[in-house]
Design a protein that fits this description.
The chain has 733 residues and is of the alpha/beta class. Among the domains are: 196-370 and 577-586, Dimethylsulfoxide Reductase, domain 2, CATH 3.40.228.10; 606-730, Beta Barrel (Barwin-like endoglucanases). It is 32% helix and 16% strand. It is built from 23 helices and 27 strands. Strands 5-4-15-14-13-6-7 form a seven-stranded mixed β-sheet, with helices on one face. Helix 5 packs parallel to helix 17, helix 8 packs across helix 12 (313-325) and helix 14 (406-415) crosses helix 16 (438-446). The two termini are 45 Å apart.
């Protein structure tokens, strides 16, 4: 990125803060936003906290003016935000003022899904839930209640479910997002890449992005480091069927055929091994099974890969040599949302192996070793042991699943095997948008005796609940302490900035009160969350008052690279980097990744790809007036040739119809040369069908509705969703 481009990037980021503040004032003046907070309060005060618009948890400073929330900026003491927030972070003001947000506990009035409710008190809601949970426990055992959770806010509800006796706690972030990546890296290095990712982008001399949309998938620290790396002259190689924002900065853009990434990775490794361009000392010292691995690459030449990938052999060779020229400061990014085609753990393992060849694991400009501060846990009583264990992966069908599989819980709810699941708690995750095949999720819900949803907005999953509990937004509550694993150790505090405008409550309060109704008060012996904080921080030797004042406690520098004297360790069975995997071989899988051509779609259909936008998070921000003003609906990217074949024009509305006949809401066509003709692309999270989301209802189309099919990764149970195809139907259909 040129100096001018970098200045413009920073100017735009700074302008977002002003836009959020100006937008808030304008909306309140127009009567769209309520006046909340303490009306008698005068003047300006600031409160440090950390963001919850996405999972990155950037440190922030919120400003209150005359008792009303005014603006949010980055906390300069925070190593994640470095004093700057992304557009959605600065727009977090809109979450507090959202007029569509949930206000009071609700009990279902009629059939599930009809969105008809009775307002009740918190005690009435808790008593209803407690009676249902005690009945389920008596008839089916405590394991028959499961929790789906996303983000740090779910920590106390997880604690509640464990105290109740259930081990069935899952997050879509594993089987629907990063799980294949973590499995692939664990099989290679013995460790995964953590979250935030342990990627040393700022020191990389060559950065390789494979289907990774940095700048659109707005992970703040990584985007800042990406700008730094490009500004410092790093080489950028982008592999993507779509010419993304990142591709616009690339030294080499490779417009790959969807689903053929393993073929390209094998060809790259073939070049690096046969031309002896790999880090030979690193591989000799730390590698296991390299000879078998190298021999397996013999057939996978760039000429072989060309008809599969559409990438010319000379481009494959040139980019392989470019990576090798900058080793070990070459970073092949592992990605985040990697559940694509069903062979995703093996594709991620191939990415891990390519990094291993370049010597980047544990090295500056590659992957650092994250560090953390030592904070003792609260001394709770022991959880009751589970008699039956987890339900999600019977017989270890997916042998390399190291976290709970959401769709495994859903399958048990549908079939009653290996034992019935009769109750779901759902916290801060819209399962109808997060899990593939909406119909399967709804069918599973109809088998339940109890569905409780805790959220800040009336999402689609809330519309199917028996009980809806309104949570305070992150600017109105405490959450658990964030003891982050990062290149710099720190502890962060989320604390209330303003009061909740209605009868919303923080998750810790919900969990503690629910425990009282279930007879589990012994597991919440503290009276309030600050008592819990003070105990843990005092036990660790830290000052709570300093944490409240600054929002951050930072620890001393610790070595994070092998170059700094950090001892290389690889917690694999061999104790080394496993180029050839006996673990996979023993389990009946390919010990070195092998390419399998992805199945094609029906004639006249196009592979559906989807991704993120920098101003929205999943499907949770579209009723935020500030963020929806920046992007109110999504578009379907269609290649010019595809548009001509289907009689489409730029800006017209169509509906999508998938291979199973499911038809989407209306979506605007974007005709562009920036995508391959055999696929289309849309931003995830739009097309809301919840009528309680008055502002977001019906705007854009839902990719989740089109994902009626999925391929399950045989290694770890992840659900690949880029296996669906769509064609076009008239907007009036």
């Amino acid at each position: 990125m040129s100096a001018l481009s970098r200045r413009r990037f920073l100017k735009i980021s700074g302008a977002a803060v002003g836009a959020a503040a100006a937008g808030t004032a304008a909306l309140r003046a127009a009567g769209t936003l309520p006046s909340t907070g303490l009306s008698a309060e005068k003047g300006i005060r600031t409160v440090p906290t950390f963001c919850d618009i996405c999972f990155w948890k950037c440190g922030a400073i919120a400003t209150v003016r005359d008792g009303a929330l005014w603006k949010i900026e980055g906390n300069p003491l925070d190593p994640l935000s470095n004093g700057r927030l992304c557009p959605r972070g600065t727009g977090g003001v809109g979450a507090h003022y959202d007029p569509d947000r949930l206000r009071t506990p609700l009990l279902r009035k009629r059939s599930r899904g009809q969105e008809e409710w009775v307002e009740v008190t918190w005690d009435e809601a808790f008593e209803y839930i407690a009676q249902k949970m005690q009945s389920i426990k008596q008839r089916y055992g405590p394991e028959a209640v499961a929790l789906f959770s996303h983000g740090i806010g779910g920590n106390f509800l997880k604690h509640l479910l464990k105290a109740y006796g259930s081990p069935n706690i899952a997050a879509p972030s594993f089987a629907q997002c990063r799980g294949p990546r973590d499995a692939g890296f664990r099989l290679t290095f013995g460790e995964d890449v953590s979250s935030p990712e342990r990627t040393d982008i700022r020191n990389a001399r060559c950065l390789v992005l494979i289907g990774n949309h940095l700048g659109e998938n707005m992970h703040n620290t990584q985007v800042q480091e990406f700008a730094d790396a490009i500004g410092n002259g790093a080489s950028l190689i982008v592999v993507d069927p779509r010419y993304s924002i990142a591709a616009g900065k690339a030294s080499h853009y490779l417009p790959i055929k969807p689903g053929t990434d393993i073929a390209l990775l094998l060809a790259w490794m073939h070049v690096i091994v046969t031309e002896r361009l790999y880090d030979r000392d690193y591989v000799a010292q730390h590698g296991f099974g390299f000879e078998q691995f190298a021999a397996s690459l013999a057939p996978f030449t760039p000429a072989w890969a060309y008809p599969e990938t559409g990438i010319e052999p000379e481009v494959i060779e040139r980019t392989a040599r470019e990576m090798a020229a900058h080793k070990p400061a070459t970073l092949v990014h592992p990605g985040r949302h990697v559940t694509w085609y069903g062979d995703d753990a093996q594709r991620s393992r191939a990415i891990a192996l390519l990094n291993a060849l370049l010597g980047s694991w544990g090295r500056k400009g590659g992957f650092y070793t994250p560090v953390s501060m030592d904070l003792p846990p609260y001394p709770y009583p022991e959880y009751p042991p589970s008699v039956r264990g987890k339900v999600d992966n019977p017989g270890q069908k997916y042998p390399f699943a190291h976290e709970t599989i959401t769709t495994g819980i859903r399958e048990a709810t549908l079939t009653g095997q290996p034992y019935p699941i009769m109750g779901w708690w759902v916290y801060a995750t819209n399962l109808l948008h997060a899990l593939p095949n909406e119909a399967e999720t709804i069918k599973a819900i109809q088998n339940l005796d109890l569905l409780v949803v805790v959220d800040v907005i009336p999402s689609e999953i809330a519309g199917w609940a028996d009980v809806v509990l309104p949570e305070s937004v992150y600017l109105e509550r405490h959450d658990d302490l964030n003891v982050e694993w990062f290149r710099e150790p720190f502890i962060a505090l989320r604390q209330p900035v303003v009061a909740s405008p209605h009868d919303q409550k923080p998750n810790w309060w919900i969990a503690r009160k629910m425990a009282g109704h279930l007879g589990l008060s012994a597991y919440f012996p503290w009276n309030d969350i600050e008592e819990y904080f003070r105990y843990r921080l005092k036990a660790g030797g830290y000052d709570y008052e300093a944490l409240k004042k600054n929002g951050i406690l930072r620890g001393p520098h610790q070595p994070v690279y092998y170059e700094e004297g950090l001892a290389p360790t690889f917690p694999t069975p061999s104790g080394k980097i496993e180029f050839f995997s006996p673990q996979l071989q023993k389990a009946g899988f390919d010990p070195v990744p092998v390419y399998h051509r992805p199945p094609a779609g029906p004639p006249g259909y196009y592979r559906l790809l989807f991704g993120r936008a920098p101003v929205h998070s999943f499907s949770r921000t579209h009723s935020n007036r500030i963020l929806s003003d920046a992007m109110s609906e999504n578009e379907i990217w269609v290649h010019t040739q595809t548009a001509q074949q289907n009689g489409l024009t730029n800006g017209q509305y169509v509906r999508l119809k998938n291979q199973d006949g499911v038809v989407s809401n209306r979506i605007r066509v974007r005709v562009t040369e920036r995508i391959r003709p055999e696929c289309v692309y849309m931003v995830h999270g739009f097309g809301h069908t919840s009528r309680m989301l008055k502002h977001a209802f019906g705007k854009g189309a839902s990719d989740a509705q089109m994902v009626t099919r999925y391929a399950t990764d045989p290694l770890m149970g992840g659900t690949a969703m880029n296996v669906n195809f769509v064609t076009f139907a008239p907007a009036e259909a």
